[in-house]
Design a protein that fits this description.
It is a single chain. The protein contains 5 helices and 9 strands; from the N terminus they run E-H-H-E-E-E-H-E-H-E-E-E-E-H. The protein is of the alpha+beta class. The radius of gyration is 15 Å and the shape is globular. The longest helix is centred in the middle third of the chain and has 16 residues. The protein has one domain: Aminopeptidase (3-Layer(aba) Sandwich), CATH 3.40.630.30. The strands form 2 sheets. A 7-stranded mixed sheet has the order 1-2-3-4-5-9-6, with helices on both faces. It has a two-stranded antiparallel ribbon with strand order 7-8. Bound molecules: coenzyme A. The site of coenzyme A has 21 residues, from strand 4, helix 3 and helix 4.
C-alpha cells in the first residue's frame, strides 16, 4: 500500500484545502465549500475533517466524513480529493477510511455520492466494494453551469469484511 498518513485538519490548513478544491482538475467533480464553511466544519461534531499526507509529511489531499452522530450509524463519505493523482493514494485512503468507519466508528452503512461522469472515482469506489443504490431523478447543476447526473453508492457493514485489508 502507498504510504499515507491521516490526521485532523487544522485551521491553518484551510487555505490550502480551498486551493485544492478549486483546482481545475477537481472542480468538475465537486461543489466546493467556502473558507468559512470549512472553518465551520472543523468545529462541527457531526463531521471529521481529515488531512492526507504522504510518507514525507507533504499534504496530498483531504477527506470529509459526515454523519458521525447519526443514530442509525449511516456515515457519509462526503468528500475526497487527492492532489497527487494516479499514484494509489486514493485507494489507500479509501481502505484506511473503511477500517476507520466500520471498525472504530462502528458504522453500519458508508455512503457517498459521485457524478455519473466521474469514471476514475466510480472505478475506485466499485473496486473497493461500494455498490450503486440509485441515480437522482434530476441532474445537479455544477459550477460553470453544466448539469450532471448524481449517483448514490454505499457499502454495508455485512459486505465490508472481505473488502477491508489487514494493513
Ligand atoms: C478520484 C480520486 C480521489 C482518486 O484518487 P487517486 O489517488 O487519483 O486514485 P488511485 O491512484 O488510488 O486509483 C485510481 C484508479 O482509477 C483508475 N482510473 C484512472 N483514470 C480512470 C478513468 N478515466 N476511468 C476509469 N478508471 C480510471 C486507475 O487505473 C486506478 O485503478 P486501478 O488501481 O484499478 O488501476 C482523485 O483522482 C481525485 O481527487 N479526483 C478529483 C476529485 C474527485 O473526483 N473526488 C471524488 C468525488 S466523488
Amino acid at each position: 500500500m502507498t504510504d499515507l498518513l491521516i490526521c485532523k485538519t487544522k485551521e491553518s490548513d484551510i487555505d490550502l484545502i480551498v486551493t485544492i478544491e478549486n483546482h481545475h482538475e477537481n472542480l468538475p467533480f465537486i461543489i466546493p465549500n467556502s473558507k468559512e464553511e470549512h472553518h465551520g466544519l472543523l468545529t462541527d461534531d457531526n463531521i471529521e475533517h481529515l488531512l492526507l499526507k504522504n510518507g514525507k509529511n507533504k499534504i496530498i489531499g483531504f477527506v470529509i466524513l459526515a454523519g458521525l452522530k447519526d443514530k442509525k450509524k449511516n456515515i457519509e463519505f462526503r468528500r475526497i480529493i487527492i492532489n497527487d493523482k494516479g499514484k494509489g493514494y486514493g485507494r489507500t485512503a479509501i481502505r484506511k477510511l473503511k477500517k476507520h468507519c466500520f471498525e472504530k466508528l462502528k458504522c453500519r452503512r458508508l455512503w457517498l455520492d459521485v457524478l455519473e461522469n466521474n469514471e476514475r472515482a466510480k472505478h475506485l469506489y466499485s473496486s473497493e466494494g461500494f455498490k450503486e443504490d440509485k441515480k437522482l431523478r434530476e441532474p445537479i447543476l455544477m459550477i460553470g453551469g453544466k448539469s450532471n447526473n448524481l449517483l448514490i453508492m454505499s457499502l454495508l457493514e455485512n459486505e465490508c469484511n472481505n473488502t477491508i485489508t489487514k494493513n
